[in-house]
């Protein structure tokens, strides 16, 4: 597609609609065009597709999984936006996004989003925190991310550092009770 056509198509796809529709439209497009669209999405556009869930969690998880093959940068950007403590973890039948976070050395900005979720969450949903804990534990045990985590903590306000450190490293001690994917 030409640039102008892509802009019009993106505008159409960003209309308030179910994420399932966006996913199907992108699957039917030329992969290069689909990549250009998802890479150009703003955080606000992504938020509307991954966090305004309307009982679409399974479809949203499938959509995010689809992005892995289209664009790794867009995939990770969608994962980051989905990690909103106010909305909660994106749960679905297909938890490939969590499987990848547990089996891949995730980009630093994704790790920061995971840690932010853990620190900002008010312990209201134990299941969410257990899943986030699995990612933290995997990043420490499999990929040696201790220094990255310490760096994240050091950037927090002084008054928050101790509680953040305790909370984050508590996850490293726990066994992960989930098998994602």
| Total number of helices | 11
Biggest sheet: strands, sense, closure? Answer: none
Question: Radius of gyration, Cα only, in angstroms?
Answer: 17 Å
Strand content: under 5%
Mean pLDDT over all positions: 92
Estimated helix fraction:
55-70%
Please provide the ordered H/E string of secondary-structure elements: HHHHHHHHHHH
Structural class: mainly alpha
Please report the total strand number as a whole number: 0
* Gap between N and C termini: 34 Å
Characterise the protein shown here.
The chain is mostly helical. 69% of the residues lie in helices and 0% in strands. The chain contains eleven helices and no strands. It has helices spanning 3-13, 19-27, 31-39, 43-50, 57-70, 72-82, 96-103, 108-120, 126-141, 146-154, 158-173. The protein is elongated.
Keywords:
single chain, 181 residues, mainly alpha, 11 helices
What secondary-structure arrangement, pairings included, does this model have?
Elements: H1 3-13, H2 19-27, H3 31-39, H4 43-50, H5 57-70, H6 72-82, H7 96-103, H8 108-120, H9 126-141, H10 146-154, H11 158-173
